[in-house]
Specification:
The chain has 238 residues and is α+β, with helices and mostly antiparallel strands. Helices cover 24% and strands 37% of the residues. The chain has two domains: 111 residues, Pseudouridine synthase I, catalytic domain, N-terminal subdomain (Alpha-Beta Plaits), CATH 3.30.70; 113 residues, 2-Layer Sandwich (Alpha-Beta Plaits), CATH 3.30.70. The protein is elongated.
Length: 238
């Protein structure tokens, strides 16, 4: 066995701190998603001087992680992003650097020092709240009645495209609640669930189901993801 210590350059790349950011994304944010979005954040955070953790091995952890992906172009009020650092920073220093690293159209509202051994962000998200504005001349009472019928149903089977083919699935287990929160124009408040096997409820599929119940099309003017809810959050019991 080689008694010499491991070089500092190899050890310092391992994660020593995880910051969980709460972010808002406005309509003027760059239309990036997936790998492009992660790479843009990594470049911005490194340029701001943050020591991102890039551990070695065959499958190193990415220093930046979102969960679940936010559709391109959708605005959001409380997204979550994890950032792994290879050095421990006090909150004031991390906040100052991260504010300076914000991509155009993004703002930082909060950050939390999360235990490195806690579940990954992707595994911690269990629900999401959306605000959906409908266009056109829509009867709020009729939409409210359709929402009640959908929530009361035991199953809500729909079809979505996946991998070039149509897949039939049950939307109902992925839907927590639907309510009309404003009447002119009609605005829906929707809470969807996330399931590791079933996926997640999509706002456009929920509106399509309401339209099927009513027997006429509904037009979506805007969808805003208000917040992601993590297991253990008080918000899940609202």
């Amino acid at each position: 066995m080689d008694p010499r210590p491991e070089p500092a350059s190899a050890a310092i790349l391992e994660p020593r701190q995880r910051w969980r950011l709460t972010l808002a994304r406005g309509p003027d944010a760059p239309r990036l998603a997936g790998r492009e979005l992660n790479e843009a954040w990594e470049a911005a955070l490194e340029a701001a001087g943050l020591p991102l953790a890039r551990g070695g091995g065959a499958r190193p952890k990415a220093p930046v992680a979102f969960a679940p992906p936010l559709p391109v172009g959708m605005t959001a009020e409380a997204e979550r992003m994890d950032v792994l650092l290879c050095d421990r920073w006090p909150a004031w220093r991390a906040r100052e650097a991260m504010i300076g690293a914000m991509l155009p159209g993004w703002t930082l509202s909060d950050l939390e020092d999360v235990w490195l051994g806690a579940p990954a962000l992707a595994a911690a998200v269990c629900a999401a709240d959306y605000r959906i504005a409908l266009g056109g001349d829509v009867d709020a009472a009729a939409v409210g009645g359709a929402a009640e019928r959908v929530i009361a149903a035991r199953s809500v089977f729909r079809t979505r495209e996946k991998g070039g083919s149509s897949v039939r699935y049950d939307l109902r287990p992925l839907l927590e609640s639907i309510e009309v929160v404003a009447g002119s124009p009609v605005v829906l408040g929707v809470r969807t669930r996330f399931d590791p096997q079933l996926g997640n409820g999509r706002p456009e599929e929920i509106v399509a189901e309401l339209a099927d119940d009513l027997g006429h099309d509904l037009v979506i003017d805007e969808v805003i993801r208000e917040r992601l809810i993590l297991t253990g959050d008080d918000a899940i019991h609202d």
